[in-house]
Amino acid sequence: MCIHYSLFFFLFLCVTPYRRLQEEELQVRPASLPAIPNPFPELCSPSGSPVLSPGSLPQPSESHIIKVFSEDGVGKVVEVPANMTARDVCQFLVYKNHCLDDNCWSLVEHHSLLGLERCLEDHELVVPVQACMSPESKFLFRKNYAKYEFFRNPLNFFPEQMVAWCQETNGSIPQSQLLQNFLNSSSCPEIQGFLYMKETGRKSWKKLYMFLRRSGLYYSTKGMSKEPRHLQLLLDLEESNVFTVTTGRKMHNAPTDYQFCIKPSKGRTEQKELKMLCAEDEQSRTCWMTAFRLLKVYSKNRILMTYYYNLNNLFLVSENSLVAMDFSGRTGRVIDNPVEAQSAAMEEGHTWRKRSQRMNVLGSPSPLHPSPLMIHRTQLWFHGRIMREESHRMITQQGQVDGLFLLRDSQSNPKAFVLTLCHHQKIKHFQILPVSP
Predict the structure, then answer these.
(1) What 3-state class would DSSP assign to 255?
(2) What are the structural domains of the chain?
(3) CA-to-CA distance for 251 and 5, rounded, in angstroms?
(4) Whose CA is closest to 240, among 207, 267, 265?
(5) Which of 152, 165, 197, 261 is deepest in the core (most CB within 10 A)?
(6) pTM of the prediction?
(7) What pLDDT does residue 410 have?
């Protein structure tokens, strides 16, 4: 199903008036007049020119074709201009697919042959990313609940033992200042700790003490020493992107399950160019990958960092503004009393139980599952008879944020369900046995 014509019509309506105004301005203003001072030189061309020249103004861009796949495997062709960002594409797909825009949708760069994937940052241009992808690679459109989780709970992402400031000051700097330290581009904390690194051309891994700074990722040639003469630069952040490894640990003979990969961002990459790394646990892996994103993208541009921070706060306000409603009468009303709100929720659950009992009386092939229309089977969090490994994969793909869960049928007990839940960045499975009233 092609939807590119709608997108281009939408962009045409937005861009055409601006282009006309730009053309009129260039025709009226004589060439002898001085150039316009640029109030935001850090957001301009790569050269960082302090003035706005005609060449640095937005120019008409040709269209490009990208194909985006949803979680059900259906692909959609989208025609985009060269200056379209990942957030723009997500907003368009949310609109076309009638999805709830809860700020969690992401465009994922997926490399099936390499077994790698990553979520594009909202401000990234999509066309240059596609130009570096192989024919077997593709874009995925799916939710990532951990997209802005750092702004909500920064302390969960950075263990005290991995942040250099916490160790050097003996805890005199409270961790509550960590987010503000990242927002300040002049004072980025250094991340340090042990990582396993796969040796090039071999299946063996070497345990090294590493340091992540704005200037790059380093490892110590002498134990845990931080002296400059003992530090070896492994890679430059500007020329690399961090990826999640989607294949199991057996493929790379990894020492743990917590792999991630640093891949060059320019040009198509071969297997030998990848830097395969492995952490001891999920928390340390999340710390390394989050710090890599922040140091690479946000810490060098305070305006961009503040934008994402404010964007996340906007959605937090939206979530906190939700209220309980009562629709039992002819008109709805807001329930202010917490006790009354809890009572209304219990009444709604009782109503659903009566409906399920009524459907069971009318006839059902199973006493446990009276009808496929039972409430749990109509919810997005119920996934039926999927395997344990599949539920684990789904939670991991969608961000592994505390509180993320799904419900499925039990494989070992036909009369039970299993709750798969993320808690303290660990995925746990709990069996649920229904109790008859």
Answers:
(1) coil
(2) 4-36+60-143 (3.10.20.90), 149-316 (2.30.29.30), 372-437 (3.30.505.10)
(3) 42
(4) 265
(5) 261
(6) 0.65
(7) 84
